[in-house]
Write a structure and sequence with these properties.
350 residues, mainly alpha, two-stranded parallel sheet, 14 helices, 7 strands
Length: 350
């Protein structure tokens, strides 16, 4: 079964690459006849599709394993094949859209990694572009607080504590065969309290006021779903629609592409760049352990990495000789002095 999934993934990726390459040709062609011919070829290709990633394959395996364990308990089978199967694929780590990567993407249309992260400048550009969007509060919350798509769609009015400046992630919305279902958070750690900054509280209050006006305008036609984020008539949002809306806004803003879930990665990366403790980021995201957070976000903003390199280098007090170079003796004394000072500071702290 998993081999069939891998085979299908290869077909999907190949079709997506062919379509992207042909779209690039259409964009670069100025002759009308040739452009028309290319567009006809483009129309004959399969539409873009998402491949089944490592996380989805792991969930499929977990579901199958549980089902087969139930079958063993009912004495329908004696062996659980899913129990011993391991998915070898590694989860891709977030990669930041640096200026060099953006320039290369504009040339060939290829993302450097399946998981891409905007810089703070990209995030600011996006939020400025969508500030008049009816659901601006969703984009703001996803950008800064790192909620999952299902969590923000499932957020209820009773889960907002604006005076106390926090929200409670208690429910999420998922889609099964196009039907929207409410469920508990993804993991036990997912049921959490998320602190809100003053600007986020202001944005959510404005959204709540707008929703009150919409309720008044719809009158008896208003559907009281109890959700914070809804359609104009009060009905709850379809998570897949939120994804489609986000992708359309990204294209309209002219920004390098990311997935909606990558806003969550961006939120974590910005928090770590700002010096927020890893444990706090773990709790904000609802990860089951700090190891998951650390392994996923070991990559940081390039500027942060460069700043860290400079700080490390500055620990060694190098003395320059007359020829402009540091002698071995001087370098040794400098390092020894720095280490001694560091030891004294630790002893003082102890």
């Amino acid at each position: 079964m998993f081999q069939a999934i891998e085979d299908q993934n290869e077909k999907v990726q190949a079709n997506n690459s062919d379509r992207k390459a042909l779209e690039l040709q259409v964009k670069q062609t100025s002759r009308r006849a040739e452009k028309r011919k290319l567009r006809e070829q483009l129309a004959s290709l399969p539409p873009y599709r998402r491949s089944v990633g490592p996380s989805s394959r792991n969930r499929i395996r977990a579901t199958l394993r549980a089902a087969l364990n139930d079958a063993i308990a009912q004495q329908l089978i004696t062996f659980n094949a899913a129990e011993h199967f391991r998915i070898a694929a590694k989860r891709p780590k977030p990669v930041v859209w640096t200026d060099e990567r953006v320039e290369q993407w504009r040339k060939d249309g290829i993302r450097p990694s399946p998981v891409m992260v905007w810089t703070p400048e990209h995030a600011a550009t996006f939020l400025t572009h969508v500030e008049d969007d009816r659901l601006y509060a969703i984009w703001h919350l996803l950008t800064f607080r790192g909620l999952r798509r299902g969590e923000v769609c499932g957020l209820r009015n009773e889960d907002l504590y604006l005076d106390a400046r926090y929200l409670h992630v208690a429910k999420q919305l998922t889609e099964v065969d196009y039907a929207v279902e409410e469920s508990d958070p993804k993991t036990e750690a997912g049921d959490r309290r998320v602190a809100l900054d003053k600007e986020s509280v202001k944005v959510l209050r404005k959204h709540r006021a707008q929703q009150a006006k919409e309720k008044l305008a719809w009158g008896e036609g208003w559907v009281d779903s109890g959700r914070v984020f809804t359609r104009e008539n009060g009905e709850q949002l379809r998570p897949s629609w939120v994804t489609d809306r986000f992708e359309a806004l990204c294209v309209d803003a002219g920004l390098p592409p990311i997935r909606l879930h990558d806003l969550r990665h961006g939120s974590a990366t910005m928090a770590l760049t700002a010096g927020v403790d890893m444990k706090v980021v773990q709790e904000m995201l609802g990860h089951s352990s700090i190891t998951v957070t650390s392994d996923t976000y070991s990559s940081v903003m390039p500027e942060t990495a460069a700043d860290a390199a400079e700080k490390i280098a500055s620990l060694v007090n190098r003395r320059t000789g007359t020829d402009g170079h540091t002698s071995g003796t001087q370098r040794g004394k400098s390092i020894k002095q720095s280490l001694s000072e560091g030891t004294r500071k630790k002893q003082t702290a102890w």
